[in-house]
Amino acid sequence: MIRRSRRSLLASVVALAGVVACALVATSAVQLLLGERPVLDYDAVAARLHATRWEALPVAIGGGVLAALGLLVLLAAVLPGRALVLPLSGGSSAPVKAGASRRSITGSLRSAAESADGVESAKVRLRRRSVTAKVRGSRLAADDVASQVRRAVEDQLDRIGPARRPRVRVHVRRTP
Predict the structure, then answer these.
(1) Residues 6+ apart with CB under 8 A from 176
(2) End-to-end CA distance of the chain
């Protein structure tokens, strides 16, 4: 049960570009029907395109940009998005279909990291195979704080019980 993102930003950008192009063409068509000067002059565009040669630099640049954008949209459609809900393990019994949001797991791990002695603040980043905790502390030695934070985060991971257990990394920065 891994719920993935929908990539709504990329879909919105593509849809907006399509709407703008359609609105421009529709506006020009209505202006031509009313006998007014159109925003997009078809004769001027056709003359410019007819005068442009295939070997010209603008054609190569435009083709490259369009190919890159097409590849980006294709990859966004084919590759899986970032997991929003991560599956939890059911323990030794039958598998349980349950999950927890990435945000809630990150918040829980951050509060566990901040609960260690000598930690003033913590930033936690949850990735597919690792959890990185960056903590700031002033009172204790860096190695002692790092081991306490690692232990607290690992204990919290044991309580959460993700299906795939990430490895834990801790970076300590001493504040003056």
Answers:
(1) 138
(2) 45
pTM for this model (two decimals):
0.63
The per-residue DSSP string of 140-155 comes to S-HHHHHHHHHHHHHH
Checking if the pLDDT of 90 tops 80, the result is: no
Torsion of CA 89, 91, 92, 93, to 10 degrees: -80
Residue 105 backbone phi and psi in degrees, to 5: -65, -45
| Residue pLDDT, tens place only, 14-49 | 899 999 999 999 999 999 899 999 888 888 889 998
What mean pLDDT is predicted for residues 68-86? Answer: 85
> Are 166 and 130 spatial neighbours (Cβ–Cβ below 8 Å)?
yes
Is there a contact between 161 and 89 (Cβ–Cβ < 8 Å)?
yes
